[in-house]
């Protein structure tokens, strides 16, 4: 009865029956000491039946063989295919963790040494160690000796171990590992952990491992110890609650009258309280051992991840058992670690503190810590790691929420300006802080009274004024769009109160209310336009975020509702606003941005054409009143938007626009005639009349086709007069040039309208000359520019048509035709353009395989079709370069890709074929170079290499395939193809002893290429290099015998043959070299 009245608390939020199921609650005897179980606990009804002797022997045999498998991975299994060690069971994660722990507890009751040996090997194997602790080692050796022995058997070939291995399997292993430790303590909390054997052994082992020089041991044991400590803290918390309950029961029983007092119950309660206190003392001793033996040393470990584990767990302890841990003795470790050099650790500190400051009841205990470390926390809002800065701002917001007096005005101002940060998460967090500080209402009664008011007298009226003042007082930035975006998530209700904003602008202030200044009105209009844009477009402004994301259904509905709301409101109020502020250029330019966010169909569906007429009337007044370019461009853009053919209001707006243009064209023609007639006697009024009307027409001509008004004629007359007489004002010349420019562009649009556009239509003489000059300056950069332009066109096409391009479409054919024309610019001399063409292919291949298909590897990459464009350049590769590029391509291919023959894989098939065909023509280009056909024919007859030499050549060419397994040492191999060049032929026509020095060949010419190994592309691995050098030396000796050359000085080829050269296709290995083309070689 006593036990039944005590609640059982468990941090796992599971029911009591589930938490206690299978745990060792039976009153059993443990070797060497009486087990102190929880008093009054009934035996478990879910106890598993005792295993048969056969099953028991099989389990013990498995435990004795624990740890013989590979620690990093492949589980050792018994003959029946089942895992036989704790490590394997936990790694596979197929069994419920509670059943795994219950099985271990059962084995512990049978033989605690064997069970503990399995647990020890579990920790050893989880560290990635291949060694195994044997039973004789466990019984006869100290922990330090065991750890030393395991360190000697540690596999040092790889730095990976289970906690650091990538992949979902090992990520799940980490969570299983932590869960196992928590469940183990939970299931043992009533007896085994008090037997002074199991916990002493585990804590001693983990303490020794945590002090190891081996990172894997230190990391794994620290994580285990911290999770063990967390589980013990939960046990201690439950014991504390049970003690309090027992004490209350005891006091209640003792205060009863003597006749009603049950002495036996009092004795039971006293005994129970004593046992609970003894258990509490033992748990505290365990926690003290872990904290002082492991945490105090590892929270400042050299490895950031280990430090982060410690800080994360101490935060859990302080939140879970605040009475014992939330004090300065433990908080100081978090405070000190706020200065950690690694952002990961600082982030854990801030999140641990956030969990504490979220509970306002804990604020009194945090007061001293807040005063001590507040400055550091505020300074972390400017942390170089954005994630840390965001969490620091959120923590400062929690501190503000708990106590406004905790932060000074200076502290708040340090956070305020972050609403203008270009990093959106930082800005949004700062916006939440600003909202809490300035816009949160704290008086419920005042809120209820103000809520009944609307417009300028609504609760948002004062808040909007406050927002305007904040915006104006921001001395660092003037970006209203950034401010609105920062507050959008926390203050949407305020920012969407357009009714209140327009009333503040249109209505006169009530008695006793201070009127807004001109500067404040301008700021409010700018903020209002930004809120309209944010609501209509539903994405951050330019410079914030990574681009437009796809909206969810809920966000899309909100966007549509907001757009309808703002359209219905501003259709009515915008003409009034323009009328009031028509004389202010800045205000008008901002207000005229609003119609572009309208749903223009509402003009027709809502029968609001009269408001459209009012808007057009006000725009006309603005155009007639202003000559500022910003205002005129805004008016022109508004007319362009309203004239969209998809809306029924287009005819009405087009008539108003034509009438406006007619008036200004007529005025312009008359003013031009007057100016030209006056000549040099023209006064300022004549000049102003021409300039003002020309500015208006030029602004409109930019967005509207005004060619039917023939503005070009008078503009030409003005320019011609200025050239002939030189008396034309500069401003008129500039405007006349712009207007003429727009006239010509509109005429070009009409000429090209209706004809299919090709990408190469603009490929004229100017572009050709530009490419020629660019290629002369830097061949490689020119090639990179060409391939980049093709990639941009391809990306635009994919965005328009999607990833499944129609390869027969005119657009794809247009890109291929442009690529073909680009290829022609490389000319016929493949030697001089060799490196540039190879660079182009490298960039093209990387672009084609840049992204993987989200559907899986059996589907082609999204950019695979680009290979068909790239194949236009394959004919510009030399034969040996084709092999190298083909090898580089195969680096990106899987076996499945090579076997696919569907239509979607045709670009890959086509490109591969272009790299393995046409070899003979390329070889002839190497042999012939720039020599005449006559010389070539002589060489073919007299200079044909012997059969032995041809075999050497073929083998050498075969050895130039890309060897991706050996990229550490790369060297330029000699080109054995053909050694009997024109130089040898000339030597044969002279006496054998005559040595005539050859004239120095032109840099980059054929002889320089054939005799200079650094002019050649070679990606040979070291073994292939040595084999090639050996064959080359054989060929050279053979040539010496044939030509009679005995003591020739070492050639440049032989001197440079041993120089190392990295793989060109490894960007990290590119080096500079002054030989060859005078640029980085392959």
UniProtKB/TrEMBL annotation:
Residues 939-950 have a biased composition (Basic residues). Residues 1-83, 918-959, 992-1011 are annotated as: Disordered. It is found in: Nucleus; Chromosome; Chromosome, Centromere. It comes from the Eukaryota. Keywords: Cell cycle, Cell division, Chromosome, Chromosome partition, Coiled coil, Nucleus. Residues 925-937 have a biased composition (Low complexity). PROSITE patterns: SCD. Residues 259-289 form a coiled coil. GO terms for biological process: cell division; chromosome segregation; sister chromatid cohesion. Pfam families: HEAT_SCC3-SA (PF24571), SCD (PF21581), STAG (PF08514). One of its GO terms (cellular component) is chromosome, centromeric region. Residues 52-61, 1000-1009 have a biased composition (Basic and acidic residues). One of its GO terms (molecular function) is chromatin binding. Residues 295-380 form the SCD domain. Component of cohesin complex, a complex required for the cohesion of sister chromatids after DNA replication. The cohesin complex apparently forms a large proteinaceous ring within which sister chromatids can be trapped. At anaphase, the complex is cleaved and dissociates from chromatin, allowing sister chromatids to segregate. PANTHER family: COHESIN SUBUNIT SA-1 (PTHR11199:SF6), STROMAL ANTIGEN (PTHR11199). Part of the cohesin complex which is composed of a heterodimer between a SMC1 protein (SMC1A or SMC1B) and SMC3, which are attached via their hinge domain, and RAD21 which link them at their heads, and one STAG protein. Belongs to the SCC3 family. This is Cohesin subunit SA. It comes from Rhinopithecus bieti (Black snub-nosed monkey).
């Amino acid at each position: 009865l006593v036990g039944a009245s005590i609640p059982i608390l468990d941090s796992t939020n599971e029911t009591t029956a589930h938490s206690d199921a299978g745990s060792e609650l039976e009153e059993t005897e443990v070797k060497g000491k009486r087990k102190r179980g929880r008093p009054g606990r009934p035996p478990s009804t879910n106890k598993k039946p005792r295993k048969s002797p056969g099953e028991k022997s099989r389990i013990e045999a498995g435990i004795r063989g624990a740890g013989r498998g590979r620690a990093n991975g492949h589980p050792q299994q018994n003959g029946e295919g089942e895992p036989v060690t704790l490590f394997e069971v936990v790694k596979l994660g197929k069994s419920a963790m509670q059943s795994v722990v219950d099985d271990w507890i059962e084995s512990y009751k049978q033989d605690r040494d064997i069970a503990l040996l399995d647990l020890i090997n579990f920790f050893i194997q989880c560290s990635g160690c291949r060694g195994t602790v044997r039973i004789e080692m466990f019984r006869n050796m100290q922990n330090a000796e065991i750890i030393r022995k395991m360190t000697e058997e540690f596999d040092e070939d790889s730095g990976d171990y289970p906690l650091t291995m990538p992949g979902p399997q090992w990520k799940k292993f980490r969570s299983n590992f932590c869960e196992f430790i928590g469940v183990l303590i939970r299931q043992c909390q009533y007896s085994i952990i008090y037997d002074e054997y199991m916990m002493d052994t585990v804590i001693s082992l983990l303490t020794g491992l945590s002090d190891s020089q081996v990172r894997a041991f230190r990391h794994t044991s620290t994580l285990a110890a911290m999770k063990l400590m967390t589980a013990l803290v939960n046990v201690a918390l439950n014991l504390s609650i049970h003690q309090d309950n027992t004490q209350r029961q005891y006091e209640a029983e003792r205060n009863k009258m003597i006749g009603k007092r049950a002495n036996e119950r009092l004795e039971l309660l006293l005994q129970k309280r004593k046992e609970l206190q003894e258990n509490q003392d033992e748990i505290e001793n365990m926690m003290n051992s872990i904290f002082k033996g492991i945490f105090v040393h590892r929270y400042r470990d050299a490895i950031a991840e280990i430090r982060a584990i410690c800080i994360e767990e101490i935060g859990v302890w302080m939140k879970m058992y605040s009475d014992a841990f939330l004090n300065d003795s433990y908080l100081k470790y978090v405070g000190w670690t706020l200065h950690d050099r690694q952002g990961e650790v600082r982030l854990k500190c801030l999140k641990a503190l956030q969990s504490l400051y979220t509970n306002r009841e804990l604020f009194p205990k945090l007061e001293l810590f807040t005063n001590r470390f507040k400055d550091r926390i505020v300074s972390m809002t400017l942390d170089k790691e954005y994630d840390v800065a965001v969490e620091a701002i959120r923590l400062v917001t929690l501190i503000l929420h708990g106590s406004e007096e905790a932060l000074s005005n200076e502290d708040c101002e340090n956070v305020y300006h972050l609403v203008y940060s270009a990093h959106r998460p930082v800005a949004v967090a700062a916006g939440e802080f600003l909202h809490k500080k300035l816009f949160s209402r704290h008086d419920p009664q005042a809120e209820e009274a103000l809520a009944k008011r609307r417009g300028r007298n609504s609760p948002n009226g004062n808040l909007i004024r406050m927002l305007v003042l904040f915006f104006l007082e921001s001395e660092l930035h003037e970006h209203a769009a950034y401010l609105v975006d920062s507050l959008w998530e926390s203050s949407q209700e305020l920012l969407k109160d357009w009714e209140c904003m327009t009333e503040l602008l249109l209505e006169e202030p009530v008695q006793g209310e201070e009127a807004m200044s001109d500067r404040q009105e301008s700021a409010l209009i700018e903020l209002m336009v930004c809120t309209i844009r944010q609501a209509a477009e539903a994405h951050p402004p330019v410079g914030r975020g990574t681009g437009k994301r796809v909206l969810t259904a809920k966000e899309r509905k909100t966007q549509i509702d907001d757009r309808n709301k703002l359209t219905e409101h501003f259709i009515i109020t915008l003409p009034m606003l323009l009328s009031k502020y028509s004389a202010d250029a800045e205000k008008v330019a901002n207000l005229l941005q609003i119609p572009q966010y309208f749903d223009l169909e509402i003009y027709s569906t809502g029968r609001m054409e009269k408001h459209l007429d009012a808007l057009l009337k006000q725009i006309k007044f603005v155009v007639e009143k202003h000559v500022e370019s910003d205002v005129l461009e805004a008016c022109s853009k508004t007319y362009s938007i309203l004239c969209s053919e998809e809306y029924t209001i287009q005819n009405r707006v087009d008539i108003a626009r034509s009438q406006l243009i007619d008036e200004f064209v007529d005025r312009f023609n008359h003013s031009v005639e007057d100016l030209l007639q006056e000549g040099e006697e023209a006064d300022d009024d004549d000049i102003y009349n021409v300039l003002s009307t020309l500015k208006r027409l030029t602004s409109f001509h930019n967005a509207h086709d005004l060619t039917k008004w023939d503005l070009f004629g008078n503009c030409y007359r003005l320019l011609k007069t200025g050239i002939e007489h030189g008396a034309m004002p500069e401003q008129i010349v500039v405007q006349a040039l712009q207007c003429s420019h727009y006239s010509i562009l509109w005429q070009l649009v009409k000429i090209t309208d209706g004809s299919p556009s090709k990408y190469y239509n603009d490929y004229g003489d100017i572009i050709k000359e530009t490419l020629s000059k660019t290629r002369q300056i830097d061949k490689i950069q020119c090639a990179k520019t060409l391939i980049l332009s093709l990639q941009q066109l391809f990306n635009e096409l994919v965005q328009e048509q999607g990833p499944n391009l129609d390869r027969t479409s005119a657009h794809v054919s247009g890109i291929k035709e442009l690529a073909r024309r680009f290829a022609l610019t490389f000319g016929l001399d493949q030697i001089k353009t060799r490196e540039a063409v190879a660079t182009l292919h490298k960039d093209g291949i990387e672009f084609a395989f840049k992204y993987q298909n989200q559907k899986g590897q059996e589907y082609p990459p999204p950019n695979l079709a680009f290979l068909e464009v790239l194949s236009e350049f394959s004919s510009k590769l030399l034969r040996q370069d084709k092999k190298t590029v083909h090898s580089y391509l195969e680096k990106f291919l899987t076996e499945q890709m090579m076997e696919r023959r569907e239509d979607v894989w045709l670009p890959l098939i086509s490109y591969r074929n272009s790299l393995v065909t046409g070899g003979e023509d390329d070889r002839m280009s190497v042999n012939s170079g720039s020599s005449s056909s006559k010389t070539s024919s002589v060489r073919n007859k007299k200079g044909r290499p012997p059969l032995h030499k041809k075999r050497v050549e073929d083998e050498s060419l075969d050895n130039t395939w890309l060897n991706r397994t050996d990229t550490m040492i790369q060297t330029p191999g000699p080109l054995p193809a053909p050694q009997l060049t024109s130089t040898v032929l000339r030597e044969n026509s002279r006496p054998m002893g005559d040595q005539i020095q050859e004239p120095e060949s032109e840099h980059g010419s054929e002889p320089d290429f054939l005799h200079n190994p650094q002019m050649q592309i070679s990606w040979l691995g070291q073994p292939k290099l040595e084999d090639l050098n050996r064959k080359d030396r054989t060929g050279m000796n053979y040539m010496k015998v044939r030509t009679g050359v005995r003591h020739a000085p070492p050639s440049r080829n032989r001197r440079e043959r041993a120089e190392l050269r990295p793989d060109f296709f490894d960007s990290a290995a590119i080096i500079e070299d002054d030989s060859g083309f005078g640029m980085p070689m392959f």
